[in-house]
Write a structure and sequence with these properties.
By secondary structure, the protein is α+β, with helices and mostly antiparallel strands. The protein is built from 14 helices and six strands. About 35% of the residues are buried. The chain binds a DNA duplex (11 and 11 nucleotides) through α3, α4, α7, α9 and α10.
Length: about 375
Amino acid sequence: MKAHPSINRGANQVASALLDWYDAHHRELPWRVPPRDLKLGVRPDPYCIWLSEVMLQQTTVEAVKSYFTAFVEQWPDVFALAAADNSDVMRAWAGLGYYSRARNLKACAETIATQYAGVFPETEEQLRSLPGIGPYTAAAIASIAFNRPAAVVDGNIERVISRLYAIATPLPAAKIEIKQRVTEILPFDRPGDFAQAMMDLGATICSPKRPKCMLCPIKEHCAALANGDPEIYPAKAAKKAKPLRQGAAFIAVRDDGAILLRTRPESGLLGGMSEPPTSDWNSRQDGATTIEAAPFAAEWRPAGAIRHVFTHFELALTVWRADIKELPAVPDAWWSPPEQIPGEALPTVMKKAIEAAIPGATKKRPDRKGTA
DNA sequence: TAGCCGTGGGT
DNA sequence: TACCCAAGGCT
């Protein structure tokens, strides 16, 4: 048999050992076709691979599972998703975070349906041109869905490779060298399984803290382990402190328990999601008087305070409540009845604010008549 | 290039 | 508690 096309023998040994480990120890995931089924000729559904990869961007596997299952059930293929209402997609995505992903997901589905006749392109270059698909996701879809030899580099693989070769250059500058190393050891017969094997290894063995090196299938090749301290890789630049922003949220409650909601602007923080009226989040440092930002005059009463940590700042919201009898006209807002509130496109921070004023209001609960 | 963009779980 | 981190993309 001809030698493997990889450049050096050590690289071949890494890929071979990793694939053997993957065959025996891979994770079972709702969107994954396991190696035993691939060998029987089962092909992954590109729609499911794409959907899962977008959901998994900066998001844990455990958080994604239930969302993925719900999405596939509600929208079984790219045509169904392309035909969906934007508001339904945002509601289904609520709680998963990074909401531009949901907007790009819908836009991508529409492009695939109309410009690609519902068939996903197979090359990295074509995939990369679609909304919400960057370098990582394009390579992941090309390799996992279409078994093309693409160099997949995510956070797991950055960690595995930087340890394997003891790369001292801090991220993100090290990404170029890391991608080159992945390209060198990429096995051309099973690129999809190789990418998933690297990610499983990073998630279960080559973890950020206290890696389980004794269980690692490629420990014999690991320069960081040989040097004595794998945990110091990957090197990263220092992080900046998060500023604190303050504001107020106004929970207007109708006689029947409905609350007033509005839609946030399409772009920016929590873009396109729903919320109770809020002040701006930098107007004053004293939350006690932000009542001036209320959407209309009423008997606003203090109803608590919440804090929420975003990626680049922390937010402290003073929550106000008013029980409304004569309904004021508020442009671009609507009254959401109690049974609809749990299904609204409410980000977690807004659910916290509502809960502060009306405990239990955002929780889904079984029908009382049916569970007596 | 670096800031913006969520959330929940682990330590 | 405070910090880190997760199958990143966009501007």
